[in-house]
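Q: My collaborator sent me two sequences in one message, no labels, and asked for predicted structures for both. Can we handle them in order? The first one she listed is below.
A: Yes, handling them in the order given. First sequence, followed by its structure tokens:
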Amino acid sequence: MINTPVFCITCDVDWASDYCIEETVNLLSSYGVKPTLFATHDSDAMRKFKLMDKIEVGIHPNFLPGSTHGSDYCSIIDKMLQMYPNAKTFRSHCFFDNVNITIEMLKRGIHYDSNLCLYLQPNIVPLNLDLGITRFPVFWEDDSHWINADADWNLESYLKDFFAPGLKILNFHPFNVAVNTPDQKYYFKVKKHIQTLSAEIINDVRYEGNGVRTFLIELLELLTKQHERFYTLDEIYQMFPVKDFLVQSDETKGRITEHNDYEYEQYWGMTDREKQEFLRASFEKRDAKDKYATSRDFNARELEINSIKKNISRKGTIFDMGCGNGYTLISLAKVFENWEMVGVDFSKNLIEGAMFLLNETKKELKSIPEFVFGDAIEYVKKIKSNSVGYVITERFIQNMPSVKVQKEVILEVHRILQAGGKFLMCEGSADGFKGLNELRESVGLYRIPETSSDNISAIRIPDKEFESYIENEVGLRLIAKNGFSSFFIISRVLHPLLVAPQRPRFDAKINELARLIQENLPPEAGYGGNVLWVFEKR
């Protein structure tokens, strides 16, 4: 989906005289517009403007019976491309179209067209033709307008349409611009001048009232005043790859494990050991070779990892509890040279994924992490006290079967940390989760459920309660609390509002931009569940 209007002006030349072409291009150039002209004939004016880089050129073949361009599709296309061999696009005269034309265009290197008119249709996006050509439909055309709008040239009546989201590819015929054609009756009256219109007779032919030319000028004035940009058709082709608008596979596939309603209901009645086994079996189903196998929101994951990096300084052993497929440690190993790094996870599948990613990235690494298949809760009990520089958890604590086990794990973390060692606890904040939901609800979005079939086990951290427990009872000092409020406000509130009723996607461009913005802002908590608490052992 395109969330704003994207303007592009094109012109079907339709055998207009060089005077008409010069009039139109000069008018558009005065407003900073570089149009795409679809050529019907050899034109000195077009060649001049092309050399001056004032226009893009496409071809405008006539496939209708009696065409002067040729007698069959191939000869017509070849003739047009001989005249304009560098043309990248086409639009057929009268939008004539069939699959044979598409095939022949593709053979000759044409990969996009504008061969369809969807008059005033909102939310126009690039279309993917079955053979591989991308189609950019026309939003508005001058002769379509005088037919559909009964020659109503009051721009104000159509502003809502022009400023609605979507592609706004406009098509003006140079002859209509030159003579200011008001309606079909007047067009037929002056049509005989198309190929010969000149400066000498323009005043005898140009319509004095409201028409195509006055409408164009009024539109250019308004859009320029509002600082709207005009794109060329080729720029739009580069900006909006058609794959972005196709129905795509689920971007979370292999990164979540769906559970049925029965499993969801049964989970909270299980013993601690049964819950852990249930989770282990769930992770065995993940695509462990995908570096984001444990994090469907990969932008949030990268923000977490960058925040972890910034809180590592003094050299020491890094221990990652519940390391998943090792992506965090591997990311750190690209930065920190000759460090000891150990990751433990209870999923054999994820540890195998970690070894795969390790081998894939070895040439990039400055340290070589060790990955261990085992129960991290039991493993940590065997680690020597006061021996570890850093302990990392990412959603490991929140996936413990109970608050009691959560606190027991944190006590073990304190035990193994060296004096001055850091506990980098990247977990789900109950306060941030609540704050985000309250914001969503206030703008009309539904509340994200505490748990769901694809997030069955989350016991989020009640911020003040756990901070007090860890500082006063465990003995670790809170030195930083990094959140990603700006990212979550954009990705979980603005993004859903913009694409509603469609499902927001984790791989949407706006989330990438939200991450970029967050990376350049203070890491404030308050909105969004992902928080990195940094505790230091006294």
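Q: And the one she listed second?
A: Here it is, processed independently of the first:
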Amino acid sequence: MPEINEKDFLDEIRYDIKVKDILKAKIVMAYLEEMKPEVVRSALSEIGKADIKFAVHLLADVLMDTPEEAKTYPLVKQLLISRILDNPQTLLDILRDTKEKLTTRLLFIELSGEIRLPEATPFLLKILKEEEGEKILKGAINAAGMIGIPSAAAIVADYLYVDSFELIACAISALGQIGTRSALHRLAERIGIDPDLDLMIIDIFAQNQSQDALEKLNETLTSHYAHVRTAGKAKLVEVGSKAVPVLTNNLLHFDSDLLIHTLNVLGDIRDEAAVDPIRKLLYNEPKDPNIRFAAYEALGLLPLQKGAFSLASGLEDSESHVRAAAARAIDRNYNTVLLAGMKNLVNGSEKDAERVITTIIDTQCDKIFLSLMDDEQVKKTGVSYLVKKAHPDVRSYFKNLLVKNGYKDIAQELDATRKKAEKKRPKVFAVDDSKMILSIYRKVLHNLGYEPVLFEFPEEAVDKVKQEKPEIILTDLNMPKINGIELIRRVRSKGLDKKKLPIIMVTTQNEAMDNEAADKAGVNAILHKPFTEESIGKAIASFI
């Protein structure tokens, strides 16, 4: 490009403006990047005084023909927006004119959204109703969302069901920006068709955080789709305390699955406001042990300033996994009141005492265990269980704990009476995001004669499945990042079919769509929680 004198540059711009020769003005403006900043400012000042239509079209052409200059000289775009705001009708005329170049209309559609120009609404709606080009439709949808046009929600929602992924994504984003109850409702209706788009919608609910949005996010807990529930739970945890009132309202319902998911989320949010509603739920003695388990597990994660004594009743529950959750909750909130309650429990009937002591050991409740070690009944029952039945890792853990806390004589008893090395056991993978459930698996599988290999994070199990090929895999359904169905798919993709590696999904859910999806993924069987040593033993024995 030949050099141009700065004075000549400005003189030519002034002349072109005067005679309204936009073609020559465009040619001259192509030299803008070669001019000094003060010359650029002078040229833009002259354009700022020009006829509105001339100035707007010239500035628009500069932005479209030399987009890099828009980054180098943001004053070009600023001036264009300023002139439009002086006379919005100029922009509206361009939107109306279907004979304008597509690139020109696209730019002004974008600008109508950027400046939140409500007067552009009817023109954008007309485009959405009558035009077909994907680029201009995307632009109009995006602008409608940026302006936040409530009246556009219905027509934008129609684009949630077109064949173009990009148009659907634009419509999702726009409805999220509009954010009315109707817009959020239409988004919620779209969930369940495409996992990637489902996650976009759920993310919008979490970002919006209005009451309507939180209620829609809460509704994901009752979804028929595992990936929707998983994503919804994660987003509710991210929202945190603001979601607690909506979640605690769920505790008034009698839907077991909803209650369990809600308790899981409340535990992870760790807001004290959830404590009393959970206590009230337990006071009503829910019949489903999975609900009781989830309630005690949640209480174990929450800050219990007072009333922790109410946890003790969980140690008298008929289900072992509920007792385990209660024990962990007690251990995390241990105080003198709970200590007195624990002493009463272990000095009750021999059967009840043994049940409490073995639960404390299996769940590795350090504080409770150490506080009771001077009790002869605890010492006798505890040592016997550690020597004869406890998993070797648990026995080793408590041996080190005893030594560290001055009970070397008791630790030596564990060494002196330790069994000889056992023969090699069949390896079983157990995958669950609950550490509590994993500790139960460890006990149950060990008692059944298997070597439990435990995974809190499903991706780790998938990574190791070929290196340490197990005899069978037990997996939960609802887990973050990778749910049980996705885990099954990934394992099967490694060439391990149903015969080579049986997989049992162990879940609290009994959802038809989940069961169907698991079957398609390649599950061998589905077992429902709460599981027992007997039920797990029978399930595994049917495949090994």
